[in-house]
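Human: I hope this is not a bother. Would you mind checking the protein record under this note? Thank you for your patience.
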Amino acid sequence: MKILALAGGVGGAKLAHGLAQVLPPQDLTIVVNTGDDFEHFGLSISPDLDTVCYTLAGLANPQTGWGLAGESWTALEQAKRLGAPGWFSLGDRDLGIHLERTRRLRSGEALSAITADFCRAWGIGPQVLPMSDQPVRTMVRTADGRELAFQNYFVELRCEPQVRGFRFAGIEAAQPAPGVLEAVAAADLVVLCPSNPWVSIAPILGLPGLQAALAVKPVLAVSPIIGGQAVKGPAAKMFSELGIAPSALAVAEYYGDLLTGLVLDTLDAAQQEALRELGIISLATASIMQGPADRARLAAEVLEFGQSLLTHA
């Protein structure tokens, strides 16, 4: 069964790793959000791509879920002593990756080609694709009338400003990266990982032609909201500030007609009846991934559930 996973952030990276553990590499393609990408110290940084790739390669910091294990911070500390901004944690090992990505982008290479080379160097089996080679930037509209670049909202301001909406700058001119639409066409099942629907999955879905391509495919989502809270990140806070009670049901309603099935946590099993009324088939299971074994177990359950959706269709 060919699987296409759409992912961003730590939760998405964890399920992508689980899928990579239980599927042959040639049967899994992971398309990653690049709306979080930004420039800092003149470097091109792709936080979601790096988180997914580091996790698949077994390089991620197991305590944070992002960044590299065994990281050091000498370069950043030196820069901060000279008055440089220190709100974004650029580790020494991470810095080398950003330097090389930036060098190659400035020489005219595409992000998708660079990512493919990095994946080969790190021994990653499944195909990992950035959603686009063109820049798309997630902008956060706040209650005080500002429009903040995502990393300023997320990291510098620690998600404190109240959210009123989002804009994906450049989305109209962007195209799916080479291989993305081909992966959709080849997929037997599309999995929306437990990533933030507003800022991790929406930029991918906003690419021209993508939703139309997905409309003829069985699509299941794994809810990032458990018991009204996000396991990590601001997804639940965003739902609340946009006037929507955060829940697995709200996640399903957000994705709307795109969705065939939803995987939700057993804690939220009472919402399955409401999901049935929406015409969405659901699976309730333990969805928190504490470690690699949990990721593989959840991925296997997602695939078994997905297989049942194919049969149902």
